[in-house]
Every structure is written in structure tokens, then in C-alpha cells.
Amino acid sequence: MEIKKYIRIYLSLFRRNIMTTLSYSPFSVILELSVELGYQIAFVLMFDMIYRNINIVGGWNRYEMLFFIGLNMFVSEMLLSLIYIGSMFRLPELIRTGGLDTTLTKPIDSMFITTVGNPYVSGILSALPGFYVMWNAVRNGNLNINIAFLSIGLLSLTPGAIIVYSLSIIIVSLSFKFPDSRRIPRLCSEFMLTFTGYPLNVFERTIERTFLYIFPILFVVSVPFQIIMKGDYRYLGVGVIFSILTFIIARFVWKKSILNYSSASS
């Protein structure tokens, strides 16, 4: 099957990246992990300072929000590592220098190899502290997590990730039009991950609806969190539908961009 083929290819790419990174730059992995951990600690401390002065934000108490922060840390780092840093961030350079020509000659889907083909090992490792933050919130806050809600909530992370991946491809495809603009992929990731870092009910109603139904990035973390904490399945089906629609649109935009691409040798 085609899916099994691409899973095998991806696992091979993943192993290659791990071996290459650890063989040639182990110190850089430690340095990058230190930077990421420092950012995460600062982020947690910021929310801790907020909850020293107030008890509830958007209907969520201190430990519920801490669980959300841990979940967001894990998801954000995984998205950065699997689709942004090693892959999409390189697209403008590949277009400008003609490196994409080589990719297009390979017997493999160009969107796959270009946008997820170079996972960032350090970022994947820095996603793991998110689990500790969630566990700490459950233990210290005596959160009553229903196993069924938790399972469905974690499964709902998949359509959310597909939505962000698809929207990112649509935006990053602008690099074919503006290959000298290296900032497009970075601005895309910053925008996506900034607005996914807040739970439902924190936004004003109009903004919340915008990020649910027009630019549906709240399906990445906020909706799964809502399911885990409250068993609120209202948006689950909508998230699945949006993941299918956005992926179809992303495929169309990517293929159109490739057709209009002028290689370095032309």
C-alpha cells in the first residue's frame, strides 16, 4: 500500500537524521535542547505569575491551565520539529538555488519529501518535557481525567495537526512566487503556534469563531484540551471535516505551485 511505503520512507529518513545529528553535532543538540528548555521554563513561570494574582482565566483554574501548557508544549515542539524547522523553513532556499530540481526528479511525492522529509531531532526531544508538565498538573491539582475523554482527546490531535500542516503548505507555497522572502515559512510558524497556545473561552467570541471556522487553528490544541477536560465533543466532527478539506486544498495549491515553478536550469 502507498501509505505503508511512505511510513517506511519516513522512518528511514528519521533514523538517518538521528544518526547524522548525533554523529556530527552532538554538542549542538545539547545546546539547542538547553535553549528550548529555557524557553519552556520561562513560559511556565509566566503563567504561574498570572495565577498568583487571579484564580480563573477563561473558566480554567491554575492546574487545568498547566495541563494545557504541557499539551501545547508537546504539540508545538513536535510541529516545529516535524514540518517547520528542517523542512518548510528550507523551501525558499531550495527554490532560489534550484535545490528543488533534484527533489522533483525523485520517484516520490514532492510535497511529502519537501515538507516533512527532514525532521529536526533536537526539537522532538524538547517536546518530552510537556508530558512532565501535564503529569505534574494532574498530580498536584488532583485533576480527574477520564480515560475515555483522554483517549479521544489525544486522537483528536491528529486532525488538528493535519489542519496546521495543510494551512502551512498553503501559506508557504507563496515562496514559489516570492523566493527571495525567507521569512514566509517562519512567519507562518510563528502565527500558527502563537494562536494555538490558548484554550477556548479565552478569546473574544468573534475571534474564537474566526479561529474555529475560518482559519481553524484552534483544533490543534484547544479542542483536544476541551475534550480531555470536559468531554466536550462539539467540535470533533468539524475538526475531521476541516482536516480533509484543508488537506485537499493544500494538495491543489502545491501541485499548482509546482507546475508554475521555473527551475534553476530553465
Describe what this molecule looks like in 3D.
With 266 residues, the protein is mostly helical. The chain is built from 14 helices and no strands. It has helices at 2-24, 26-53, 62-84, 91-97, 99-104, 110-116, 121-126, 129-141, 147-155, 157-172, 183-195, 205-214, 222-230, 236-259. The protein is globular.
Summarize the SSE layout with pairings.
Blueprint (H helix, E strand, L loop, with lengths): L1 H23 L1 H28 L8 H23 L6 H7 L1 H6 L5 H7 L4 H6 L2 H13 L5 H9 L1 H16 L10 H13 L9 H10 L7 H9 L5 H24 L7
Helix pairs in contact: 2-3, 3-8, 9-13, 10-11, 10-14
Task: Give a concise summary.
By secondary structure, the protein is mostly helical. The chain has helices at 2-24, 26-53, 62-84, 91-97, 99-104, 110-116, 121-126, 129-141, 147-155, 157-172, 183-195, 205-214, 222-230, 236-259. It starts with a helix and ends in a 7-residue tail after the last helix.
List key phrases describing it:
266 residues, mainly alpha
Percent of residues in β-strands: under 5%
**What percent of the residues sit in helical stretches (DSSP H or I)?**
over 70%
Radius of gyration: 19 Å
- Which structural class matches the secondary elements? mainly alpha
Low-confidence stretches: none
Shape: globular
**Count of DSSP strands:** 0
> With helices defined by DSSP (H or I, 4 residues minimum), what is the helix count?
14
> Biggest β-sheet, characterized?
none
Give the N-to-C terminal Cα separation.
35 Å
Overall mean pLDDT score? 84
The H-and-E topology, N to C, reads as HHHHHHHHHHHHHH
